Amino acid sequence: MAAPMLRWVGRGRRWTFARVDGGSCHRREAPTGSTSNRIRGRSSVAQQPLYTTQKPRKGEHKWAAVVGLEIHAQISSNSKLFSGSQVRFSAPPNSLVSFFDASLPGTLPVLNRRCVEAAVMTGLALNCHINKKSLFDRKHYFYADLPAGYQITQQRLPIAVNGSLTYGVCAGKKQSQVIPKTVRIKQIQLEQDSGKSLHDDLRSQTLIDLNRAEGQLRVDANISVHHPGEPLGVRTEVKNLNSIRFLAKAIDYEIQRQINELENGGEILNETRSFHYQLGCTMSMRDKEGKQDYRWFMPEPNLPPLVLYDATSLPTGADPQQVINIDQIRETLPELPSVTRERLVQQYGMLLEHSFTLLNEVGLLEFFQNVIKETRAEPKKVTSWVLNTFLGYLKQQNLAVSESPVTPSALAELLDLLDSRTISSVAAKQVFEELWKREGKTPGQIVSEKQLELMEDQGALEQLCHSMMEAHPQVVMDLKKRNPRAINKLIGLVRKATQNRADPAMIKEILEKKLSS
């Protein structure tokens, strides 16, 4: 109870697509394993189209879907939102419950400063307007895991409003192109968490744990479909989705189900549904009763308005421990992902999709930046090696960046050898493969031991090219006939003879001179 939670509410987002076939759920077994576990109170973000469908066939009408997400996210704090009880994962049931958590008469809520600061920081990170004055409300509903009969939230005037979040969608045949999208965020509000219901089917009883609901993330998806230009359709709410994968599947299924229902002359009920992850479908839980569902709101009488300040409104001589300064929190924000991606593109000239990859892999951006600091190689070459060779080896062996046998210093030294033309690109990959064996050798030592240095004796290389041309007269004839493959074949033969120690560009230059003489 009273666990520190944020609630982000998203605006409805619509997109258009054709009629989709399917959308039925054939129930062959009892619906076990549903993600709906009646956890209440957390935090809430916005919605966005997750996919597009095929073009409509002739004579078919387009449909538009509107999806709004309510995301409940746990705040990282040591104590609960309105009491001093600890927050500790997997604590014994009801071992972290204060008198207020148990809703004993006469107990009053005390707002956690850390939770307010976290809410402000979240709002700033999501480009929200931070309200200098926000209010708390009671949301009334009756359930065993809510002994007070109401939940403290921010319905009327939340702490942050009107935000946005920019993200990337993979597109193209190889899903290598990243298209930036922006989703709108209606509001962010602090909300008390409920308890957790533990259902014992064997004894046909339900036990209540008032420590807190331990879920760190829960999403409720509100979904409706309509024809473009017509009024919005009746919405359904899919409750308590606990993973991004299940969220996407539930939205996909529910859109298809509603379209099928309407295409077949049925109607959509304003109801709450759950997602059955084993069957891959949504199932009805209960009907909603009016616009406010089963809840009604009133101002919270035991909490005054929450007042925040910025540099312009901060009272003179105010005690920093007694006020929360929005601008001071803004200064503590780390560089946000969108800013980092933009900086990478501007500073290093990399593609936008490459910047997304660097940020999406834990530790990869730090690895890349450390290599950049220690090498003379061009940033584009560093990007290529980190995203292709280095990341490829990691994925092949299912390793995290922190588990890599190749350090940023080792890769930087290898790229310096390549940049100074000490070794060829083929030899560089041989050296990288040796580094991956964890033998503790430096790139320089590997190059020296395996004699991978590029040939510096141009006279010897010219003699070798001459010998290859004499040994392969047909290839030379093809080359004179302007066969583009012929020169590459000769280059390959010469490099093979030098164990890949010869520079392909130098070989090509020598061959072209001999052909023209």
Automatic annotation (TrEMBL):
Location of this chain's protein in the cell? Mitochondrion
Task: Give one Pfam hit by family name.
Answer: GatB_Yqey
The protein's matches in InterPro entries, at most eight in alphabetical order, are given as:
Asn/Gln-tRNA_amidoTrfase_suB/E, Asn/Gln-tRNA_Trfase_suB/E_cat, Asn/Gln_amidotransferase, Asn/Gln_tRNA_amidoTrase-B-like, GatB, GatB_Yqey_C_2, Gln_synth/guanido_kin_cat_dom
What's an example GO BP annotation here?
Answer: mitochondrial translation
Catalysed reaction(s)? L-aspartyl-tRNA(Asn) + L-glutamine + ATP + H2O = L-asparaginyl-tRNA(Asn) + L-glutamate + ADP + phosphate + 2 H(+); L-glutamyl-tRNA(Gln) + L-glutamine + ATP + H2O = L-glutaminyl-tRNA(Gln) + L-glutamate + ADP + phosphate + H(+)
Region feature (Disordered):
26-47
Any single Gene Ontology cellular-component annotation? glutamyl-tRNA(Gln) amidotransferase complex
Provide the Asn/Gln amidotransferase domain boundaries.
366-515
Matches recorded under SMART domains: GatB_Yqey
Q: What is its EC number?
A: 6.3.5.-
UniProt keyword annotations, A-Z = ATP-binding, Ligase, Mitochondrion, Nucleotide-binding, Protein biosynthesis, Transit peptide
Query: A Gene Ontology molecular-function term?
Result: asparaginyl-tRNA synthase (glutamine-hydrolyzing) activity
Q: Where is the composition biased (Polar residues)?
A: 32-47
Is Protein biosynthesis among this UniProt entry's keywords?
Answer: yes
Q: Does the keyword Repeat apply?
A: no
What does the subunit comment say? Answer: Subunit of the heterotrimeric GatCAB amidotransferase (AdT) complex, composed of A (QRSL1), B (GATB) and C (GATC) subunits.
Family affiliation:
Belongs to the GatB/GatE family. GatB subfamily.
Role played: Allows the formation of correctly charged Gln-tRNA(Gln) through the transamidation of misacylated Glu-tRNA(Gln) in the mitochondria. The reaction takes place in the presence of glutamine and ATP through an activated gamma-phospho-Glu-tRNA(Gln).
What is the name of the protein in this document? Answer: Glutamyl-tRNA(Gln) amidotransferase subunit B, mitochondrial
In which organism is this protein found? Cercocebus atys (Sooty mangabey)
Taxonomic lineage per UniProt?
A: Eukaryota, Metazoa, Chordata, Craniata, Vertebrata
